[in-house]
Amino acid sequence: MPGSDDVTGFALFLPLRRPGAPPAESESVCMSSTEFTEPDVPPPTDSADSTESPTAPTRRTFIATTTAVGGAVVAGGFITGSTFIDAEGAEAGEAAPSSRVSLTVNGSRRTVTVDNRTSLLDLLREHLDLTGSKKGCNAGACGACTVLVDDRRVNSCLTLAARLEAAEVTTIEGLADGDELHPLQQAFIEQDAFQCGYCTPGQIVSGVGCIKEGHTGSPEEIREWMSGNICRCGCYVKIVRAVEQTAGRK
Amino acid sequence: MYPFSYTKVSDTREAVNAARNGGRYIAGGTTLVDLMRETVERPETLVDITGLPLREVTVTERGGLRIGALVSMAETAANRKVRTLYPVVSESLELSASAQLRNMATIGGNIMQRTRCTYFRDVSADCNKRDPGSGCAALKGVNRTHAILGTSDDCVATHPSDVAVAFAALEAQVQLLGPEGERHVPFADFLLKPGSTPNREQALRQGELITAVEIPAHPRPLKSGYLKVRDRQSYEFALTSAAVALHIRGGVIRDAYVAAGGVGTVPWKLPAVEEALVGERPSDRLWAGAADRAADGARPLQHNRFKAELLQRTVERQLRTVGDST
Fold first, then answer.
1. Is A122 on the interface with B (CB under 8 A)?
2. What is the ipTM of this complex?
3. Does B29 touch chain A (CB under 8 A)?
4. Is the N or C terminus of chain B more exposed, i.e. has fewer CB atoms within 10 Å?
5. Residue B145 covered by a domain
């Protein structure tokens, strides 16, 4: 999405670990990617990614590398490529309990083995390279991680991936139809409904849910039913207009 | 987050057996996962109960309403029977959390949710609820949002649920299934005041599973509603709230059900307010006089003295809103 920025989501929001505290689950996300049935990857809607050639280092791997060099102490774990391995777990030689789960993400069937602690958000971002969904608070308070699970909007940061057997997940990357943006994505552009863009993927997916639920009868109703998505730039007026415009066209 | 094993159960007996052996139930997970990440909660085994058949909302033979424990907050709020019979329940739910969280969280989980006290959620702070005997950092800390009713020297944390306030007002029952079978617990006895054991929050026995919340039949017509006062307009916990249900016939209040939220260590039933209303005719004077009793017994802390008067005004306004509506 225009304005989306992985820098804040990836580097700055890595939680600081307290002494003696267990590893944050983002550090121990990826156990192994067994039996990946790599389906057709949906066309990325992230304009930054789509302009990069497959062989060039992506912005994301560049950031990961610089984090590994400059921020390994902060992360508290080893970084191998895009895979995190928990330092404590590795030293102890004990794997944390994991689960195998098959789910559908943006129309593609995925089978993965995940540490039970892995959130859906971390599965998407760290394992499936779907970095559109953002990690804002990681506590269900900001809505930046909003995705649709079985057609209902949820906070992916509070959803354990291991529980999603047979679930259908739709993220911001799954809304567009090829090169044609979802009407709400288009409306966000037309209404200029973002500044920094960090909350935007969550706002749009939540807006899609809000429209499906039918809570778009008035600007007041939209505001109330979109209140789970915080925008620190304060673009609420235009976000409401974008949702209103899209609901009106239905 | 500490490692845990995970199992999903397909019938209630299997669930109870798993929990009897130390497993922890998880439904929507919106509180539990959050607190596990903060390492406040450290379950070794999660027992996923979302596959259990506890998703029905039914009108009972006697005319009450039985809400299955796994019905989501969103589904409950939208349910036609709930909206028709007990608007106070749907209103309290729609004024809770966010649309995303309401899609995830369940009725059983909602009444099991733990306090939002920041000292409870911060594992480096003293908290008798999290770490019995360590002390209560809120007593002399920042306690603006804390309780003024039902507190003890060991804990002043509020119960954060809104719909639990409606359930308390309507004198609901919590239906449980445990190793020794089924039992029904009045809502007033289900959530426990902290006393000297704030770590013990519900009258649950080892392995017991909430299967439903049942609201008994009340005389009809019953007008009801929920008012929530908070620091921002939406998506915030209550500073004060009032659940009110009134049965008015022949111009006289025959039955009154009133409870308050945001002020108590548990949802706070207001029998003194109810008594002041029953047998009387609706009037502004009656609403004000009854609401004067709302903060009886309050023990404010340094930063939440405002809550006693705010509570009285919240109750008064909601009595007027419900009582004067036609």
1. no
2. 0.96
3. yes
4. C
5. no
